[in-house]
Amino acid sequence: MKEARDVILRPIITERTTEMMADNKYVFEVAPKSNKTEVKQAIESIFDVTVESVNTINVKGKPKRMGRYVGKRKDWKKAIIKLSADSKPLEFFEG
Q1: Do 22 and 79 meet the contact criterion of CB atoms below 8 Å apart?
Q2: If you write DSSP's letter for every residue of the chain in order, what string do you get?
Q3: What does the pLDDT look like over 29-80, one tens digit per residue?
Q4: Which of 6, 9, 57, 94, by CA, is between 20 and 30 Å from 40?
């Protein structure tokens, strides 16, 4: 199995994901080669919570221009994690 910190790259904090936190759903950027089982095990080991479900989405990179040159942002994978009702909420903001 992969190391838990290699699977979970970073949390995605936006207005929309902050509203999802009220429903016990959290969004993370995960390693592109990881699967739902690895993501579930990584979240449970890092945050010591019980995961109810995992949904993953492959996000395609947008095309970008720098003058006359055309490039592309990288493709990445995100996971929407739903915690069980008896799990404590995750804390991203300290202080």
Answers
A1: no
A2: ---HHHHEEEE---HHHHHHGGGTEEEEEE-TT--HHHHHHHHHHHH---EEEEEEEEEPPPEEEETTEEEEPPPEEEEEEEE-TTSPPP-----
A3: 999 999 999 999 999 999 999 999 999 999 999 999 999 999 999 999 999 9
A4: 94
Beta bridge partners of 25: 82
In the block, tokens 């080991």 appear at 45
Contacts of residues 40-47 at CB distance under 8 Å and 24 or more positions apart, as own/partner, are 40/81, 41/1, 41/4, 42/2, 42/4, 42/5, 42/7, 42/8, 43/8, 43/81, 45/4, 46/4, 46/5, 46/8, 47/90
> What global pTM score does this model have?
0.90
pLDDT of residue 1: 60
| The length of the chain, given as a count of residues | 95
